[in-house]
């Protein structure tokens, strides 16, 4: 069995406009040193998938800078490797209407040239707002044994305790794992089975589906393809029981970032044997902890200078925290500068933010105080 990968880098950019105004969802920073695409790429590479296409839309300069040649994921190869699939490179994308894709199905149509040129048996599709460490080889094997047309990776969650997006896909399966109902909407309560937007398909089935959708003018993958074909197609589920998070808003980004401060989440995500989370390697100096500084239950990347107090926070590379400053329950992205005698609580700063001396900033877990890239307070 062989498989290729297809990653959607922009599908849910509108879910978190604060962080995607100048970048794709795929290149949103996470966990101190990673980008969201690192998890999708690592899942595929660790499962033996070495041909991966990344569908882009716009604002993908930072994504190109991060991926480079793909060598940090062992994808700088003569055969296969990583392929960036920008819009307007096929006849479909450069149609008379000259419109960039607006849905998952249209994105697949734009990537039809990549899919049709693949010789692999299966295609693994994944979004970038999904954070998990999953063995996709198990999913592919289960898909092959069941003979399914599509296998959806699902996760059982408590709707009241999990921050879900407005367009969450809910899947109902019978005792044999065959999908019998598929709906979209935000559940309000109870234990629900959600689609993680990780899917495995037969390559021939995907190619035929794209051609049929283009002929009929379909635009929605779930409504026009999946829902219409439930009774005649063989759709299956694969239930994932590991740690999982999905970013559907700034509040959910804050929540799933803060979960990394617990041992259980860190072990589930980064402590899996033979399944490391790979990212772009940067050679930075170690973080300098000055006299009088205090760090408690925080993730601090390299290249920082800490003179104040940091508690329950995630500090990215190159951040400076001034003397007498207290940072609590916050996420400071790369090269943020915080002056002296400042106080931060539930604050998210984008890159290159400057917070001057004596500033007191506070948000709430449900509505963090956000400062955009290059902002100054």
How would you describe what is shown here?
The protein is an alpha/beta fold and 377 residues long. It has two domains: 3-270, Spore Coat Polysaccharide Biosynthesis Protein SpsA, Chain A, CATH 3.90.550; 288-371, Hexapeptide repeat proteins (UDP N-Acetylglucosamine Acyltransferase, domain 1). Helices cover 21% and strands 28% of the residues. Strands 5-4-1-6-11-8-12 form a seven-stranded mixed beta sheet, sandwiched between helices. It has a five-stranded parallel beta sheet with strand order 14-17-20-23-26, with no helix packed on it. Strand 4 (51-55), helix 3 (61-67) and strand 5 (81-85) form a beta-alpha-beta unit. The N and C termini lie far apart (55 Å).
């Amino acid at each position: 069995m062989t498989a290729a990968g297809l990653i959607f880098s922009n599908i849910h950019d509108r879910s978190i406009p604060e962080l995607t105004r100048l970048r794709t969802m795929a290149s949103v920073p996470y966990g101190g040193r990673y980008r969201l695409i690192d998890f999708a790429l690592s899942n595929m590479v660790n499962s033996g998938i070495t041909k991966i296409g990344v569908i882009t839309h716009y604002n993908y300069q930072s994504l190109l800078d991060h991926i480079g040649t793909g060598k940090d994921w062992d994808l700088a190869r003569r055969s296969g490797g990583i392929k960036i699939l920008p819009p307007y490179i096929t006849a479909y994308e450069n149609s008379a209407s000259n419109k960039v894709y607006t849905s998952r199905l249209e994105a697949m149509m734009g990537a039809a040239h990549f899919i049709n040129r693949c010789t692999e048996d299966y295609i693994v599709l994944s979004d970038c707002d999904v954070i998990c460490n999953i063995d996709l080889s198990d999913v592919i094997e289960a898909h092959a044994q069941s003979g399914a047309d599509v296998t959806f990776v699902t996760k059982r969650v408590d709707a009241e305790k999990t921050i879900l997006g407005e367009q969450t896909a809910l899947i109902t399966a019978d005792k044999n794992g065959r999908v019998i109902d598929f709906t979209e909407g935000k559940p309000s309560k109870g234990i629900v089975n959600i689609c993680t937007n990780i899917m495995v398909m037969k390559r021939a089935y995907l190619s035929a589906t794209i051609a049929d959708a283009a002929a009929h003018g379909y635009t929605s993958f779930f409504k026009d393809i999946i829902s219409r074909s439930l009774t005649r197609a063989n759709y299956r589920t694969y239930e994932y029981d590991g740690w999982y998070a999905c970013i559907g808003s700034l509040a959910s980004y804050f929540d799933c970032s803060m979960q990394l401060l617990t041992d259980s989440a860190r072990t589930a995500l980064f402590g899996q044997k033979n399944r490391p989370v790979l990212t772009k390697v940067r050679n930075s100096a170690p973080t300098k902890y000055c006299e009088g500084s205090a760090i408690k239950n925080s993730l601090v990347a390299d290249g920082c200078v800490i003179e104040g107090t940091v508690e329950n926070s995630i500090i990215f590379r190159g951040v400076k925290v001034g003397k007498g400053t207290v940072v609590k329950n916050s996420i400071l992205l790369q090269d943020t500068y915080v002056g002296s005698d400042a106080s931060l609580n539930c604050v998210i700063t984008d890159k290159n933010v400057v917070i001057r001396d004596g500033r007191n900033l506070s948000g709430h877990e449900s509505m963090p105080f956000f400062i955009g890239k290059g902002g100054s307070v």
